[in-house]
Amino acid sequence: MAKDISRRSVLATTVAAGAAATVPWRSGRATEAIQIGMPCALTGSLGPIGQQMKRGAEYFAKVQNAKGGLLGRPIEYIIEDTAGDPATCVRKAGEMIERYHMPLLMGMTLSSEALAVVPKLADWNAIFVASDNGDGRLTASAFVPNFFRANTSGPMDTRTVALWLRQAPYKSFYALGMDYAWGHDTVNSFQNLVKQANRTFLGSVFSPIGTKDFSSYILKIRQSGADAVFLVLAGDDNNAFLEQAHEYRLGDKMQLLTSTVELAAIRTLHDATLGLVGAARYCSTIDNSANKQFVADWQKAHDGALPDIYEGEQWQACQILAAGIEAAGSIEPEKLRPALEQVAIDSIKGHVAMRACDHQAVQRGFMVKVQKVADDGLLPQIIDVFPADKVTPPCRKETYDD
Fold first, then answer.
1. 229 and 174 in contact (C-beta within 8 Å)?
2. Strand 104-105's sheet: what is its strand order?
3. Residue range(s) defining the domain that contains residue 224
4. Are residues 126 and 200 in the same domain?
5. Contact at 8 Å (CB) between 229 and 173?
6. What are the tens digits of pLDDT across the range 269-320?
7. Whole-model pTM?
């Protein structure tokens, strides 16, 4: 179950943003809940993604608690809205650790939030398992031992698209990204991969989070004369751009590529997403027995709705954290950290293994295209799958050697 913290109920002695005081880990009785802090962007432009993460975590807790929880203890998520603000995220993460004496964190919707939190983890003596954060620096230049990324990273998304483009007819590219850490990092990775493949990168533009009118950006993209435009957008921004691009018939001029194909956008925009091609960190149409069972169970619990990208990624992250806790027999960071470094599971995305050298979960890359499916309307259909060793960058790097 999830618990929302009232701002008025937070202790006056909580850890403030930027504080460096060490918070000791204090174990509770074995019958007490295993509490996991999730400071998420539940409102704002990326609120829909945070809501997906929340649903994924709550559903995992419900399923796992029905099986007896972890180590004989129920799982409880402490969830609070950050509105996507890094300083708020740091403050609320510190408050959760101080108030609930928990050593476990998940959530954090924006990479900028995660990048602000990871320098505090050692002082807090807390483990953070990411389920969404894409910025490549988190497992490279900004790596800290108490951070683990269970999800596909931005460079891995981009690498998947780049591998697919090697066999596609497009020769020139433009890019549009959200103007914050994930957007810049992913566009930069794409630019490098395009040049590495001896294709032409014509330029890029970045839109502030919360942009509603993309007409000027669409004009720049059209005027570039590119064969394809690479989009690094999410949430409400993604929906606004795709809707307006459809109105301006941008898809008639060039192929729309995206770092992540979101089911939420397809549900909202319908034909405005038809023909969209891109990477999918998770897709309900992944063909393996674990995913088929997960999708069927999810639909039973959610009125027939299919799980979206970040619901699937959150589920996988919860599985990885749970496997680490079970292997360690503890949630104490000193015991959990080495256990997590050895975790390997057969996930809804196939085999996924945590890499000890940089704490990146190694996993396959999926390319999808939005197509009409009989009786089901529009769905992202898998058009190619790339092996994990080709998709995951070398240890603590954001770039690839080939």
1. yes
2. 2-4, 75-81, 34-40, 104-105, 127-130, 147-149
3. 155-280+365-391
4. no
5. yes
6. 999 999 999 999 999 999 999 999 999 999 999 999 999 999 999 999 999 9
7. 0.88
